[in-house]
User: Fold this.
Amino acid sequence: MQYRRKRPEDTRGTIRRLLSIMGHHRKMLYLVGILTAVSAVCNLWGTYMIKPIVNDVLSENGASKLVSGVIETAVVFTIGAAAAAGYTQVMAKLAQKTIYDLRRQLFDHLQSLPIRFYDQSRHGDLMSLFTNDMDTVSEALNNSFAIVIQSFVQLIGTILILIYLQAKLAVLVMAGYAIVLIWIRYSGSVSKKYFEVQQKELGSLNGYIEEMMAGQKVIKVFNHEAAAESRFHDINDQLKHAGIHAQTFAATQVPMVMTISYINYAAVAVIGGWMAIQGQMDVGSLAAYLVFVRQTALPINKFTQQTNFIMNSLAGAERIFKVLDEQPEQDEGSVVLVHAQRQQDGSLQESDQGIFAWKDTAHPQQDLVPLAGDVRFDHVVFGYRSDHPVLKGISLYAKPGQKIALVGSTGAGKTTIASLIGRFYDINDGEITYDGFDVRSIAKHSLRQSLGTVLQDTHLFTGTIEDNIRFGKPDASREEVIQAAKTASADDFITRLPDGYDTVISQDGENLSQGQRQLIAIARAAIADPPVLILDEATSSVDTRTEELIEQGMDRLMEGRTVFVIAHRLSTVRNAKAIIVLEHGTVIERGSHEDLLALKGEYYELYHGMTELS
Assistant:
C-alpha cells in the first residue's frame, strides 16, 4: 500500500486530529487537564516549602514554625497525590473512549471505500491498523498524554521559581538544559524516522504471516517451507534492524538528561554555597534551589521516557488518518429502488409492498419504471489503469430474462464486465444502461440490491448456515431460508449436518467442503430474489452429480431473470440465449451454441479444446 511507504508529513496535524477526537469527550479532557495541573502545582508548592521550613528552623520559635510548615507541606502533597490518582482514572476512561471512536471511524470509513482501494491494499496491512497502530495510540494516550501535560506545567513552574529564587543561578541552569532540549529535538527527529520504518516493517511482517497461515496447504503441497522461512527471516531481520536504530537513538535521551542534571547540580551547589556564605542568598533558598535543580531534570526525563511511545503512536496515528483521508466511494445516483403497485390504468404507484420499480428522485414527476433487468453496454472502454485498457469499446446487451454467457481466455475481460454492471468501478468511456437508466445515475445501494452474485471464490462469515444464507435478505424468514437452500440443492446436505441450519460456520467455512460452501453461496443469491444474476462459474467446485442438481435449481432460479454467466467450462453454457466470446477486451463472436460451432471460429476451437480456456 502506497500510504505505508510515505514518510509522515504533518506531526502537528496528527496531534490536532487526535485532540479533536478526544474533544468529543470534552468534559473528561478538561478534567484531565485541571487535575494534572493541580498535581504539578502541588508538587512545585510542596518543594518550595523547603525554603520557609529551613529558614524558620534557623530562626526563633523554629520548632513551632517547623510543625506548621510540615503540616502545610503534607496537605499540599496529599492534594497533589489525590489529583494524580484522579487524572489517572479519568485518563484511562478517556483513552478507551477515544480509541473506541477512532476504531469505529476507521471501520465505518473502510466500508465506504471503493473496491479499487482493496485491490491496491494488502489485508495484513489493513489488519495492522486495527492491531499494532491502534494499540500504540492507545498505549500513548494511557501512559503519555497526562504525563506530558504534567511535565510541561512542572517544567515551566520550576523555571519560574528558579528565576524567582536566584536569577543569576537560573542562567546557568537554563544553559545546561538548553543543550538537553537541542539534543532531544535532534535524537527525537532521527528516532521518529526509524520508528516509522519499524511500524512499516511490522505491518509487512503481519501481512506475510497472515498470508502464510492462510496458505499452509499450498506451502506443504509444494514443499515451500524452507523458502517461506527464509522470506520470514529476511522480513524479521529488517524489523530487528529498524527497532535497534529506533531504540538506540531514543535511549540516548535519558542518559543525556541525567548527565547534564548532575553537572548542573554540582555547579549550583558550589556557586550557590559560595553565594550563601557571601550573604547573597539565604540558606532556605539554597536548599530549595538545589531540590528544584534536580527536579528540573524530572519533567524532562519523564518527557524523554515517553518519547518512544509518542513517536510510535504518532506514526501509527498518521497511518490511520491516511486511510481515513482516502476518498470514499462516490455515489451521485438519484434513481432508487422502491416498491410499487400497478394501478387499473396500467401505471405504477409507489407503495409499501408490491413489485420493484425505479424512481428518479431528481425528477419526481417522471413515471416509475418497473425493474426488469435490461442491461446494455454501449462502446464501453475501461481500464484499471488509465494507460492499460481492459475493455476496448465493448458493446453487448441482455434483454430481460435472457441468459448471457461470457467466455474467453484469462484476461479477456469477463469478470471485469460483471464488476462494471454493479458499478464497482466506473468506466472511462461509453455507457452502461440498466432498464434504460445510465448506471451512474442509479444509487449504488439500489443498483446492487437488484443484483445477485455468486462468485467462484466463496466467502462465508462466522455464524450459522442460516445466518449466511440470510445474508442475501436480512429480514428473510426461516421458511424462505429453507426454500432458497432447496432451490440451490443445498437443503439435503444441510439437514444431514448434526445441527442442520444452526450449524456454526467458522474460519470462512473450513468445516465444510468447497462444494458445500458454493451451494450456500448460491442459496444466498437465491434468497435475495434479484432480477439480474451474475454467476462466476458457480458450479466449478462441485462434483458432476451435485452440478446437475445445482443446474436444475439454477434453471428454476433463472426463470424470468437476466443472467450473466462467466464460464470456465463450456459445457455449462450450451443452453444460454447468447454466448459472447471475448478476446483482449473486445467481442469477437456472439451467438447461440449451435451458431458459434457452425462458424468454426474461436468458440469452436475453445469447445473442442483446441485453444486453452481458463
User: Anything to note?
Assistant: The chain has 22 helices and 16 strands. The radius of gyration is 35 Å.
